Amino acid sequence: MTTSPNPPTRHPDRPRRPPGLGPIALLLGIGEPSPDRWRRLGESLVVGDEPMDRLVDWMYAEGMGTTRPLFEQALRAGISSVPDAPEPLRAFFTMVETTPDWVDPELLRRGERVFRSGGSDGLYFARDVSFLGGYLASGFNKTLIRTGALEKGPARRFAETLQWAMDVSTENGMDLFGQGYRSTLHVRFIHSMVRRHVAAMPDWRGDDWGLPINQTDMAATLVGALLAPFVGGMVLGIVPSRADTVAAAHLTRYVGWLIGVEEQWLPTGFRDGVEILYHCLAAITNPDETSRQLAVPMADDPLRWSYPNLPGLRGRIARAQHLSVTTAFLGPKAMRTLGLPAYVPPWYPALRIPVNLVRSAFVRLSPGGTDRAAIQGRREQEAFLRRLIGETKATIGESAPPLEKIA
């Protein structure tokens, strides 16, 4: 008989009201999670990624110096390119290379294009609402702090996340062995190493906090990184077609499958994706002192971004701009909890909504408009990445400690 895992004490008795998504949830008719889903959200706080965790355990046991090059070869060119591949490696890559029957390549292509078309405004929502507001989930913060998040700095961490999302949404990025495919499996590998490393720390309180990078946190991060920017773009006036919403959800579903999120937390459609995010946030929103520790440096980070001229002035304007997005969606209570100004006039959303509405109409009505929007949007995204870290490269996983040297 299989028994369900006991949820950690961080799982609340009843759903909390997550900031930022309330109006959207109301518009889509999304209510509180059912008792069964609420129980599963709690249980998933102690569930990791069994296929990748098993592979990583084997890699450490055999020696990373020997097994890591084999992993990288299979990642680049497939398991068939590894002569006499060891069985644990073969089993894992055979699984991920067997694309599920439900994957529609045309929908993936459209989903990639939709993400690119969101331009910088979608990324601003990801940073200023999903990423910054995510610090209200203190259980996830416990892992971040133990991997050196405070020392590495918010710009570098977000740049790595942004680089992954841009890899995923590059043209044909999610093809087998494509740029997004490789980056996603690389992130999955790093997650497993971090999970193993942090869970073994003497100060990790598993009974209270659950498992580092668990299924509930992973599901919230997945939808928050890929679908929430799309939602944010809609709120900022970027009007999608119904086919675009379907494609965005489909891309998120396949990326989630590839990164190790269980089937029960993979969105089957746009509304379902928003519901998963809303329910996950209702379970993991539990701010504590770590929320301020991480949020305040990120809010002030625009002051140190890379500007070609007038860095002092542009840094102050950028800080006000991004805080205006945060306060517009999170509200005064969440802002105070994060240690941020309770109210910043939402001037940037007010300016962008009419611009984006006109832009959306032009894209929809003009021949070739969607292709041009994707090209222009990707230019904006690349420019934002350069603003974060200058001309240096955002290497996925660079912010993690040197985990390969840790048994």
List the keywords.
mainly alpha
Textual characterization of the structure:
This protein has 407 residues and is mainly alpha-helical. Helices cover 65% and strands 0% of the residues. It is built from 20 helices and no strands. Helix 19 (347-365) packs antiparallel against helix 20. The chain is globular. The two termini are 33 Å apart. The model has no long low-confidence stretch (mean pLDDT 92).
Task: Detail the topology: elements first, then pairings.
Layout: H1 22-27, H2 35-43, H3 50-62, H4 64-77, H5 87-97, H6 105-117, H7 119-133, H8 138-146, H9 149-152, H10 154-168, H11 179-199, H12 206-209, H13 215-226, H14 228-235, H15 242-259, H16 270-284, H17 289-300, H18 311-337, H19 347-365, H20 369-389
Helix pairs in contact: 3-4, 6-15, 6-20, 7-14, 7-18, 8-17, 10-11, 10-20, 13-15, 13-16, 17-18, 19-20
